[in-house]
Design goal:
heterotrimer; A mainly alpha; B mainly alpha; C alpha+beta; A: mainly alpha; MetI-like fold; 11 helices; C: alpha+beta; Rossmann fold; OB fold (Dihydrolipoamide Acetyltransferase, E2P); 6-stranded mixed sheet; 5-stranded antiparallel sheet
Chain lengths: 253, 276, 319
């Protein structure tokens, strides 16, 4: 196991992890619509680019992800700080539970809630419900990442600030917040990716005007072989991959 | 200070209460009510939705979910252990190797699942390649079966097994392995008698962390099983959409939640805070 | 300005009582040490004076004014933390300016320059904490606390993070700094050598209580309890009487008149560099250790010897 076998195995496992995605990306540049390589072409990217519905779905996804990222990052950062000062088992437990709750359950529970509330409020499913749902499930991710940063912080830093005449608010704003910046940025990037990528919850709480890119990708994938799906996948894969690498970098900074 | 903290926690409390705990309570309430004629949820209050969980019609799906999630979990742990061992001993390249495990995980779940459809479908890469090489005359039915779902689940949740195993192995004293060798153990004996018993907490964590999302999986069986390989998640979705039986769907969801919470509770009770 | 007074301070943690009825009076301008082993309650005492914790009972007064209930930023005391707690995103100068800016001091720039000069960090003003050496960090923390001209400076084991050589150098600097600025220093330490060499007065704490208050000489030479005697240095106990190893002599012949003598057998002899350490056993089974200078002879295991000392070197614990 220790000799030559283990490195060989590790290479095979990394191939298992990465090859499916790399092959998918490679074939998005194939000029044929079948899975036989016939030459390099950007034809599927051109088709993707010219698809109006796709552009709209992408715009929806970006908008939803941007708004929910801003909100969940603010709410999650404040929450992590509050929990760091003094843990509330009920709140942190609920947040952790929301992380492991199967998405389909989160989705139907939110759907049921929105339907129930709308009977009284006379509003419909749409962008706003998607954004609310995304903020709700992103908060826990933000709390997790910011909390990890706070755990490495010296609690004496805030005491030092108070000791030197800062109020509690000033200690937070002038000492803790600047220290947390990389963690908060990492958390925001993570919140953006989970929001941008979500299909299950979004599809349940979306209205007619709020079809997102994953919803469209899902519909196209079910319809059958279509190299445009490979092209979209490649763009998403590369885009989100860059965000995640950036987030990792920031978390280590 | 107390006031500032309360103010900071307020928005998170609001979201958690209104968009997590509240919705869960609504599901609890629905699970004890009856299905209306046009869908919807009506009184009378009843326990019937829970007794229906034991109907063989659904029992098959529940059982299948457990078997598939169990198989995927076992597969993940077996595949992840040697990798975790390798990473834990690779010195300065540790974080690079770990990031390489995590990278596909964080990029779109939908894209990753689609990548397997692309490989496995009748006109997919594997069948095309085998046909071109003349190894088969007809495309093999690789997609839309239980095996495709299990592969998809393993592919989806392998990092959840690698991370806890890695952090457990990383904490082990490096000299344990050498001590075992010094006392005459061959490498595989050292792994079997020294390393494996000491990684039991990592195994348990990996098992629970992989089993939970696999049991509640929706997208993987939906896309790779194609309706032939339904799991609990798909049944729940079905009750809320086409079957329009929200009360039964709610009872199913809560049964799934109960299992998830039970598993987590057992893990935390046994291995405690060190995992968090 | 005035004396710092603690009156009957109590503090309970969920599991036990950490501070158990402490009363202290620290004169203005004094270098005062709170000495004790870890867990004796000295850090909690400091945190109550700084305002990070509130006592369950008892008063903390400074120049007659009660500090209880005031937030840390309302108290005229500042702290040098054990970890220094320098703000990692601010330079040395910015760290020092932090407190002045909170007060809106119009003289901030000049005071920061003076403070940097005071601790000889003028050339390192623009360094971030991560770019400084341990000693520079320590001096920045000192300057940051002193620049606010507190009435009392609290120092929580400020030398413990430094390596031994640097620690001795910083000890000298600290002493000199205190005599220059003239404000009250309350120094928390578990290191008896540090406390003895720096302090005007020492209060020894043990299990939340005060064991003894006095000058370094009083504490070392006339300890009030066995704990104090043992904590400040090694002691040979012969019945109720104690004597420090460096005051203990060994000879083959009986010593002259006036000396206290015990007959013993040599158990081990160790070369310590600056002296020999000889361990002997009396017939009663007591172990007596003597540190003797080079040239006073070498002793073999099993040898019968006279162990003796002068009566004025004895430590007598008052009953």
């Amino acid at each position: 196991m220790k000799g030559r076998l283990l490195p060989l195995y590790v290479v095979a496992l990394y191939a298992f992890l990465h090859l499916p995605l790399l092959i998918l990306c490679a074939f998005s540049f194939n000029s044929s619509r079948f899975t036989v390589w016939e030459g390099f072409s950007l034809v599927w990217y051109r088709m993707m680019w010219n698809d109006g519905a796709l552009a709209e779905a992408t715009w929806n996804s970006l908008l939803i992800a941007a708004v929910s990222t801003v909100l969940s990052t603010i709410v999650g950062t404040l929450c992590a700080y509050g929990l760091w000062k003094k843990n509330s088992k009920l709140l942190s437990g609920s947040l952790y539970l929301s992380l492991v709750t199967p998405e389909i359950i989160t989705g139907i529970a939110l759907l049921a809630t929105f339907q129930w509330a709308f009977r009284y409020l006379q509003i419909q499913l749409g962008m706003h419900t998607v954004i609310l749902a995304h903020v709700a499930f992103s908060i826990a991710y933000v709390v997790l990442v910011v909390m990890a940063r706070l755990r490495t912080a010296d609690p004496a830093l805030e005491e030092a600030a108070l000791d030197l005449g800062a109020t509690e608010w000033q200690a937070f704003r002038l000492v803790t917040l600047p220290m947390l910046k990389p963690g908060i940025a990492a958390a925001a990037l993570l919140a953006f990716t989970v929001s941008f990528d979500d299909y299950v919850i979004t599809s349940l709480v979306a209205g007619v005007d709020s079809e997102t890119l994953p919803m469209m990708l899902y519909a196209m994938a079910r319809r059958g072989a279509n190299p445009v799906v490979s092209a979209i996948s490649t763009v998403i894969f590369v885009g989100l991959g860059m965000l995640i690498v950036a987030s990792e970098r920031l978390q280590k900074a | 200070m107390k006031r500032l903290r309360a103010l900071f926690l307020l928005p998170a409390w609001a979201f958690t209460l209104l968009l997590f705990l509240g919705p869960m309570l609504i599901i609890v309430a629905y699970s004890f009510q009856s299905k209306g004629i046009y869908g919807g949820v009506v009184e009378p209050w009843t326990l019937e939705n829970y007794t229906r969980l034991f109907d063989p019609l659904y029992g098959v799906i529940l059982l299948r979910s457990f078997v598939m999630a169990g198989a995927a979990t076992a597969g993940c742990i077996v595949l992840a252990f040697p990798l975790a061992l390798y990473i834990a001993r690779s010195g300065t390249r540790k974080s690079l190797l770990l990031n390489l495990v995590m990278l596909p995980f964080w990029t779109s779940f939908l894209v990753r699942t689609y990548a397997w459809m692309f490989l496995l479908r009748d006109t997919g890469l594997l069948n095309s390649a085998l046909l071109a090489l003349g190894l088969i005359a007809e495309p093999l039915p690789l997609l839309y079966n239980d095996w495709a779902v299990i592969v998809g689940l393993i592919y989806g949740y392998l990092p959840f097994a690698v991370l806890p195993l890695y952090s457990n192995l990383e904490r082990l004293d490096k000299s344990l392995f050498e001590a075992a060798a010094d006392l005459g153990a061959k490498p595989w004996e050292a792994i079997l008698h020294v390393i494996l018993p000491l990684t039991a907490p990592g195994m348990r964590a990996a098992g629970v962390l992989v089993f939970i999302p696999c049991l509640g999986a929706y997208l993987t069986p939906d896309l790779l099983g194609g309706g032939k390989s339904m799991m609990i998640g798909n049944l729940v979705q079905n009750q809320f959409t086409s079957a329009r039986d929200w009360p039964f769907g709610s009872a199913l969801s809560l049964a799934l939640m109960a299992i998830v919470m039970l598993l987590l509770w057992a893990l935390l009770r046994r291995d405690g805070e060190e995992l968090l | 300005m005035g004396d710092l007074q603690l009156e009957e301070i109590y503090k309970d943690f969920p599991s036990h009582r950490v501070v158990d009825g402490i009363s202290l009076s620290i004169p203005q301008g004094c270098f005062y040490s709170l000495l004790g082993p870890s867990g004796c309650g000295k850090t909690t005492t400091l945190r109550m004076i700084a305002g990070f914790d509130e006592p369950d009972r008892g008063l903390i007064k400074l120049g007659g004014r009660t500090l209880n209930g005031l937030r840390p930023y309302q108290r005229p005391v500042t702290t040098v933390f054990q970890s220094y707690a320098l703000f990692p995103h601010l330079t040395a100068a910015e760290n020092i300016a932090f407190g002045l800016k909170r007060k809106g001091d119009p003289d901030t720039a000049r005071k920061v320059t003076e403070a940097l000069d005071l601790v000889q960090l003028t050339t390192k003003a623009d360094r971030l904490p991560a770019q400084m050496s341990g000693g520079e960090r320590q001096r920045t923390a000192l300057a940051r606390a002193l620049v606010l001209e507190p009435e009392v400076l609290l120092l929580d084991e400020p030398l413990s993070a430094l390596d031994p050589k640097l620690r001795k150098q910083m000890r000298l600097e600290l002493k000199e700094l205190q005599s220059r600025v003239g404000i009250t220093f309350l120094f928390i330490t578990h290191d008896q050598e540090e406390a003895l060499s720096l302090s005007d007065r020492i209060a020894v704490m043990h299990k939340g209580r005060l064991e003894q208050i006095g000058t370094p000489q009083e504490i070392y030479l006339s300890p009030a309890t066995r704990f104090v005697a043992g904590f400040l240095g090694a002691v040979n106990w012969v019945g109720p009487v104690g004597v420090r190893p460096e005051m203990t002599r060994i000879s083959r012949e009986a010593p002259g008149n006036g000396a206290r003598v015990v007959e013993a057998t040599v158990n081990s002899a160790m070369f310590l560099g600056d002296c020999f350490q000889v361990e002997t056993r009396t017939s009663a089974g007591d172990s007596i250790i003597a540190q003797i200078a080079h040239g006073l002879g070498e002793f073999q295991r099993g040898e019968r010897v006279h162990v003796w000392w002068h009566p004025q070197d004895e430590i007598a614990i008052p009953q």
